[in-house]
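Hi team,

As requested, here is the filled-out complex form for the protoporphyrin IX containing FE run. I kept the field names the same as last time so the parser does not choke. Let me know if anything looks off before we queue the next batch.

— J.
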Amino acid sequence: MKGIVFVKFNEFIEEVWGDEFWDELLSEANLASEGVYTTVATYDDEELFTLVGLVVVKKGISAKDAQFAFGKWVFKELYNLAPPGAHDFKDVFEFLHAVQDFIHVEVKKLNPDALLPEFEFLSETPNVLTFKYLSPRKLCYFCEGIIHGLAEHTGQDIKVSQPECEHEAGEQCVIEVEKV
Ligand code: HEM
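And here is what came back:
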């Protein structure tokens, strides 16, 4: 994954649990990069999974909650990096379409080595949007968190659920976003 994700994960951990906790994670994780992350480089996905795994053990939270919390926190950071035109969308559903049709496309053009999920939209009513989250990285809980961060940004109340999830014996991840 791109260094930006690691740099932001570092900031997230330090903001929530402090600099010493980040140092503690690095001293136990034994990472090839030694945790000296820069936004321009790319790092092995496994490093992120190792760090999340250590947070889970040390803080007694589930991997799901850890990924979700990071996703919710990181939305505003991604938003600040978003390509011109991405700031015009005021609605969660419109924004989610824009991520698939335009925002992640632009991100990929600027960073050809970025690894991004695909969203396959399945159905949409005025209040409920359903899509498949497709990614070999299986970060659907991170994705749920980002969607909550997005809704906080647009000022909309939403519920996010997964009628089917690869982590819950499903064949794929289907994310349902409901405006409440
Ligand atoms: C605000 C504008 C956004 C920008 C600029 C952006 C950009 C990015 C970048 C740079 C990455 C890392 C790629 C890599 O490490 O190789 C990423 C990953 C990801 N993005 Fe976005 N993103 C945005 C919005 C969203 C939204 C709203 C969602 C949720 C629906 C989302 C879902 C994800 C997920 C789940 C990943 C992790 C990779 C994966 O699942 O395979 N992004 N995005």
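Two things worth flagging: The domain at 68-179 is CATH 3.90.1520.10 (H-NOX domain). The longest strand covers residues 118-124.

Thanks,
J.
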